[in-house]
Predict the 3D structure of the following.
Amino acid sequence: MAAQKNRLKIRALVAGNWKMNGSKKDLSELRKLATAMKPTKSGGQVKAEVMICPPATLLPRMADVKAKGIALGGQDCHANINGAHTGDISAEMLKEAGAKAVIIGHSERRADHNESDKIVRAKVEAAHRAGLMAIMCIGESLKQRKAGETLKVVQGQLRGSLPDGCTAKNTVIAYEPVWAIGSGLTPSVEQVGEVHTALRKALMRRFGDEGAKTRILYGGSVKPANAEELMAVPHVNGALVGGASLKAQDFYGILKAYL
Ligand code: PGA
């Protein structure tokens, strides 16, 4: 498999971001996914770490399902431990509910909730404080890509959104071009490679060996049909998947890149 080359060095992570989707009945998708992932005589074992990030309401329910080999994550957290923040959830609460990780700084949060790099950085710190792995998202808009600003934009977001003390264990980067999210469009493998290589260099400059080992996921319209190709790009260490993570069959189709 083409994705094998990348996975030899760093264990990949494929995380499903359910966004504001899913209810009690969809717990069956988690069970189906766990069943599909069971190694059989004919099929091998998925080598990547697998995670589902459901809405917070489903997190404890999913934790009760105890789906073997599937970790859970939250989708956002507040920077504080507790307090008068109506509607918010702290990293500690997510951890208690069964999360191992939390997505932070998704472009939908940055756009819908005006989250700046500074706010994102404080949330990454909160995740680390709670013992959660932060999956920190960055990505350029179509306008920025067309203006040739992609590398400048993502490097700036990376610099501004990561606190000191990030390690390969407590932090994952997700490169998600805003124009590729939910659109069915994906950058070419060359474009993905260019960004991931630049991010790897920036991570190494700042975090040394930890930066060399930190996983950099690609996200934006990943589906079974393009997963193999995208996951084989140098410095792509997994995927953050939205729409195609909602159905076990589609998500497993993506995981097949890591069989
Ligand atoms: P998509 O979303 O796979 O539906 O494009 C990816 C994401 O927003 O994480």
